[in-house]
Design brief:
There is one protein chain. The chain has 323 residues and is mainly beta. Helix content is 9%, strand content 50%. The radius of gyration is 20 Å and the shape is globular. It starts with a helix and ends in a 6-residue tail after the last helix. 29% of the residues are buried.
Length: 323
């Protein structure tokens, strides 16, 4: 068993280890994405990103401190032989004081891209304009479906807040809602509610449906489930829900949302990984801290680059500066 896999075992079940040389000011960049039905037979790709503000370099100018970040989006064919999208975006953070709690937050943003169906690789790079050494690139396989037909679900967006709004100028607005993304999918003592958003397509107005929410532990054992009935008023609707993490110990979990018909036959389902860290929670989660359980967990089958990403994120989980 490789050392990194063993360390991840400790992280997943106890969350009490520390990485040598880690500083709370080290560069922290997270990104995620979700795919929705678009227009003109294209899909809408939403990309969510966050920078931990305290890890950025601020310079004083005109009475305030400013940090600048660059987000690079590169989409290529799955074999890397054709670049279909390559663009950089810049944004900034301005504060009056860098010594207080104002920097113990995340700079969060969202980018929307219209894209044709196909199999791609997406690379999302975040970098600190004032210190180019601070840079990180996340790389994901990206599968954009053909024009959506039949009853389907969009991806899940994991959020830190969802509220009703009419502010269509807000960059996080969609379908009468403000959805504040949480690209790290990290929750804890000061962020106790997991919000999630998704869309349903091509529903029948003559039918009712069930939406079921399930929470799994690291070994895919169901630890919570709930279900609600919906009667759609439109063939395509937006839905959102919440999950409280009060009863969850520090660890890694999976949120699955299923769409089922009146006979409880599953039509479609989507899943997202979430991370829970609670300060001073030294209890192992309900998977059990044993090598046998680890060998049957998802980590035993993960690629080395995926383990690297989990390890890097866990460093943030194992600090006490939750946002």
């Amino acid at each position: 068993m490789k050392l990194r896999r063993f360390i991840l075992l400790l992280i997943a079940f106890a969350a009490i280890s520390f990485k040598n040389g880690y500083s709370e000011d080290s560069f922290q960049f997270n990104a995620d994405y979700a795919i929705y039905k678009g227009s003109d037979n294209k899909a809408l790709l939403e990309i969510y990103y966050s920078f931990y503000m305290k890890s950025l370099n601020y310079s004083f100018n005109n009475g305030e401190y400013k940090a600048n970040v660059t987000i690079g989006i590169k989409i290529s064919g799955k074999n890397g032989n054709q670049i279909v999208f390559d663009r950089q975006y810049n944004t900034n953070s301005a504060v009056k004081d860098t010594s207080g709690s104002e920097l113990k937050k995340n700079l969060i943003g969202q980018l929307n891209i219209s894209i044709q169906s196909g199999e791609y690789i997406i690379e999302i790079t975040g970098s600190d304009f004032n210190n180019v050494v601070n840079s990180d690139t996340l790389r994901y396989p990206l599968s954009i479906p053909e024009n959506i037909s039949g009853m389907k679900m969009s991806d899940l967006e994991i959020a830190s807040e969802i509220k009703k709004s009419s502010d269509q100028e807000n960059s996080f607005y969609k379908n009468t809602l403000i959805v504040i993304p949480n690209p790290s999918a990290l929750f804890g003592s000061s962020l106790k509610t997991v919000y999630f958003y998704f869309e349903l397509y091509n529903l029948s107005l003559d039918s009712s449906y069930f939406i079921e929410k399930r929470i799994y532990d690291i070994n895919k054992n169901i630890i919570f489930t709930s279900q609600k009935s919906i009667k759609p008023s439109s063939v395509s609707i937006a839905e959102y829900g919440t999950m409280e993490i009060d009863t969850l110990h520090s660890g890694i979990y999976f949120l699955e949302v299923l769409l089922a018909n009146q006979l409880n036959n599953v039509i479609d389902s989507k899943e997202k990984k979430i991370f829970v860290y609670k300060l001073n929670d030294n209890k192992a989660d309900n998977t059990g801290n044993t090598p046998q359980n680890f060998l049957t967990s998802v980590y035993a089958q993960m690629k080395e680059e995926d383990l690297d990403r989990e390890f890097d994120l866990s460093v943030y989980i194992r600090t006490d500066k939750e946002t």
